[in-house]
Amino acid sequence: MNIKTLTISIMLTLGLSVSLAADDPIYTGTFSNLAVGGYDPLSYFSRDGEPIKGNKQFSTQWRGAEWRFSSASNLAKFKADPLAHAPQYGGYCAWAIAQGKLAKGDAETYALVDGKLYLNYNAKVAERWNGDRQTFIEQANIRYPSLIDLNHAKAN
């Protein structure tokens, strides 16, 4: 058994998830500090499951990004537990993270897996990611912390 397989097995056995720690930055794009492309992150979890654009009237700052919501109620729910509603891996592309790379996530190319929101770069990448979501999530959970550490080091 190689070290990667062993690490994944241990993490699964312990139920560990490292997809979004308390101090991880949120990917906001090159020209904007708008999280999730301005979509209401709670809208992904609604019965319809279709993302809805947020309204600047219902917004908050969290982790260096502006988050917008479609209602005061959704804003309040997010403030109460942002980690439950924020996209995994800081909003970066879940497939790219699994490959050991950082790439922007597209708010319109998403999936909900086990109650968590994952974004992908585009539809072509999402199709690839959807082919083996669980394996890619396991790989991304392992790679994400070191990618973010490396990214922070470059920024400082």
Detailed description of the structure:
With 156 residues, the protein is of the alpha+beta class. The protein is built from six helices and four strands, in the order H-E-E-H-H-H-E-E-H-H. A two-stranded antiparallel ribbon has the order 1-2. Mean pLDDT is 83; it is low at 1-22.
What's the topology here?
Layout: H1 3-14, E1 55-62, E2 65-69, H2 72-80, H3 82-85, H4 94-98, E3 106-113, E4 116-120, H5 123-130, H6 133-155
Antiparallel strand pairs: 1-2, 3-4
Task: Offer a concise description of the structure.
With 156 residues, the chain is of the alpha+beta class. It has helices spanning 3-14, 72-80, 82-85, 94-98, 123-130, 133-155, and strands spanning 55-62, 65-69, 106-113, 116-120.
Question: Notable features of this structure?
Answer:
single chain, 156 residues, alpha+beta, two-stranded antiparallel sheet
Structural class: alpha+beta
Shape: globular
Mean of all residue-level pLDDT scores: 83
How large a portion of the residues is in β-strands, by DSSP E?
Answer: 15-25%
Could you tell me the number of beta strands?
A: 4
Oligomer: single chain
In whole angstroms, the N-to-C terminal distance is 37 Å
Helix content: 25-40%
Give the helices and strands as they follow along the chain. HEEHHHEEHH
- The radius of gyration over CA amounts to 15 Å
**Poorly predicted tracts of residues:** 1-22
SS field, number of helical segments: 6
> What's the story with the biggest beta sheet?
2 strands, antiparallel
> Main sheet: which strands, in order across?
1-2
